[in-house]
Write a structure and sequence with these properties.
Layout: E1 7-9, H1 18-27, E2 31-33, E3 37-38, H2 39-42, E4 46-49, E5 56-60, E6 63-68, E7 76-81, H3 85-95, E8 101-106, H4 111-114, H5 126-139, E9 144-148, H6 154-165, E10 171-175, H7 193-199, E11 204-207, H8 215-223, E12 227-230, H9 232-236, H10 249-263, H11 267-277, H12 287-292, H13 296-302
Parallel strand pairs: 1-2, 1-12, 2-7, 3-7, 7-8, 8-9, 9-10, 10-11, 11-12
Antiparallel strand pairs: 4-5, 5-6
Helix pairs in contact: 1-10, 3-5
Length: about 300
Amino acid sequence: LDYTNARILAPMVRVGTLPIRLMALEYGADLVYTPEVVDKAIVGAERIVNEDNGTIDYVVKGVSVFRTHPSEKSKLVFQIGSANAELALQAALTVAQDVSTIDLNCGCPKRFSVHGGMGAALMDEPEKLCGILRNLVEHSGLPVTCKIRIFPDREKTLKLVKMIEATGIKALAVHCRYRDERPRRERAHWDRLKEIVDAVSIPVIANGDVMEYDHLSKLQELSGATAVMYARKAEANVSIFRKEGLLPHMDVVREYIRRCIHLRNHHSNTKYVLMQMFNEETKSPHYRPLCEAKNFRAVTKAFDM
């Protein structure tokens, strides 16, 4: 994959499902990440091709754990949550034919992730972290990347990124916050990026408070970062990837609903994503009907479709 000047859809739990990923790509995203999928959740899944709409499901006990479409394969990064090198590899091999890159989540600070030794917990066990990456690099047959946060200690951070680079990964995404910091509470530490970029020779993807289309050039000038990753802004309006500018919010919302219906996205996930789209617009006349919607018919009615 070419990370040069790339604008990337970040891995977002429950939000970065297939409809949002496909819309992001159509609006101009260069790469899209899946939400984190825990290794044990997908190992042993049955691969099912849905002939009616071309989607591919990975199914475990009758439940789709991961859904994709061939049109996104060349730009799709599959993010794994793991604390075990062998399970991570099994997960990667399970989906290898439908993705372009494997990413190891080493930055998620949420309890469900760190409680199992995954996500940001791996940063405190660098040997384990690097062991998982090396196993993926050597045996998955795919390019491997990694997403981390930063430590308050600068030298500790630089030591870690150099260790990670030595595993052979192709790119490093850096969320410029500490493990206990949150996006709506503390600002991202953009001032810490340049030293990381200077410490490694692989592409560095900047993440954290990337909210405008032109933040790519701003962060490149500030730090030399190769690419940027959008999370909250893409969650609110995925047309952030359009070089022509944002589309009207309601146009994006209605297109998202249409896409979900075509792709047979689950109603509960569709509603969840829509709720995130209205996170800053709770006074909208559409918000209450959305909250009360219990099926797709009610969702479409809430938006006059």
